[in-house]
């Protein structure tokens, strides 16, 4: 399994939701998946952070299909999706849209219960107590990422500031955002980046919790098995959720792309040497 240490690429798996059909009478492209479609397969080993001397290259494994806006669809999809990719990556990045939110936010945790209140697009909910049936009586009511998000937030701002100040036009790794026509030295106001704890109890919350719960299962299996599977122990908590605003149109999608790439770079540099941020 890739570790993201010196000389080893930081490999990240990324997945996001599909169309936002409940927001308008017509389907809208979900900015989460529109951003994912624009991601390259790799990013060069560069970083804006002055706090690091080692900048790992990044390999991106993007899930080719949008995730369903459905509780039961997610419960059927997430476990196998995590298990198919867990051995090959350092981290899982999940992206969803927060309707009515004008900022980008990384979320540290998700809850097991509460998905009985808001019906999904299939007009279904998860009954009270269903979480215990799914994940067991010993399952935790809240699961959290093991990623040091306070440090990631600092690096995230640094990475994006350099992009927006136009100091490095080639760092984005060959994606369409490189062709967006930014003028020489053009300055733009920085997007609003936040570290919150409000993933919610709708499909975003269930996606995050079920992903973290599957990583717990894999960790427990690895701890009880032989050394052949012990490499999986490190994956507990190795997932991060990003909420993006309801972006509309290519220009906003490209701006969201820059934000996500900056976040990936921040995750990579903090993972490579987290002690510098403590």
Classify the helix fraction into a percent range: 25-40%
> What integer is the average pLDDT?
82
Distance between the termini: 26 Å
- Secondary-structure element sequence? EHEEHEEEHEHEHEH
DSSP helix count? 6
Based on Cα principal axes, name the global outline. Answer: globular
Sheet having the most strands: 7 strands, mixed
The number of E-state strands comes to 9
The SS-based structural class is: alpha/beta
Q: Can you list the strand order of the major beta sheet? A: 2-3-1-4-9-5-8
3D structure, described in words:
Belongs to the peptidase C15 family. Keywords: Hydrolase, Protease, Thiol protease. This is Pyroglutamyl peptidase-like protein type I. With 278 residues, the chain is α/β, with parallel strands linked by helices. The model is unreliable at 1-6, 167-186 and 226-233 (pLDDT under 50). Helix 1 packs across helix 6 and helix 2 packs parallel to helix 5 (203-224). The chain has a 7-stranded mixed β-sheet with strand order 2-3-1-4-9-5-8, with helices on both faces. Strands 6-7 form a two-stranded antiparallel ribbon. The chain has helices at 31-38, 71-85, 130-135, 149-165, 203-224, 249-272, and strands at residues 10-16, 42-43, 58-62, 91-97, 104-107, 109-111, 142-144, 193-195, 239-244. The chain contains 6 helices and 9 strands. The radius of gyration is 18 Å and the shape is globular.
């Amino acid at each position: 399994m890739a570790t993201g240490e010196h000389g080893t690429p930081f490999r990240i798996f990324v997945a996001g939701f599909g169309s936002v059909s409940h927001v308008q009478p017509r389907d809208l492209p979900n900015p989460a998946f529109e951003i994912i479609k624009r991601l390259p397969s790799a990013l060069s080993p560069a970083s804006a952070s002055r706090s690091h001397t080692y900048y790992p290259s990044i390999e991106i494994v993007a899930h080719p299909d949008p995730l369903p806006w459905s509780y039961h669809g997610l419960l059927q999809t997430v476990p196998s999706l995590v298990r198919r990719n867990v051995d090959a990556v350092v981290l899982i990045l999940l992206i969803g849209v927060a309707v009515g939110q004008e900022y980008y936010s990384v979320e540290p945790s998700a809850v097991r219960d509460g998905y009985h209140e808001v019906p999904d697009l299939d007009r279904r909910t998860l009954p009270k107590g269903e979480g215990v049936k799914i994940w067991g009586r010993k399952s935790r009511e809240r699961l959290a990422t093991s990623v040091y998000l306070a440090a990631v937030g600092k690096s995230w701002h640094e990475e994006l500031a350099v992009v927006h100040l136009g100091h490095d036009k080639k760092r984005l790794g060959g994606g369409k955002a490189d062709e967006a026509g930014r003028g020489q030295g053009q300055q733009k106001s920085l997007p609003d980046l936040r570290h919150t704890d409000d993933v919610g109890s709708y499909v975003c919350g269930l996606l995050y919790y079920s992903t973290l719960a599957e990583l717990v299962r894999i960790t427990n299996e690895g701890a009880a098995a032989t050394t052949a599977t012990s490499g999986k122990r490190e994956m507990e908590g190795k997932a991060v959720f990003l909420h993006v605003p309801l972006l509309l149109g290519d220009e906003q999608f490209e701006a969201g792309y820059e934000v996500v790439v900056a976040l990936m770079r921040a995750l990579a540099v903090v993972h490579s040497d987290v002690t510098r941020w403590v």
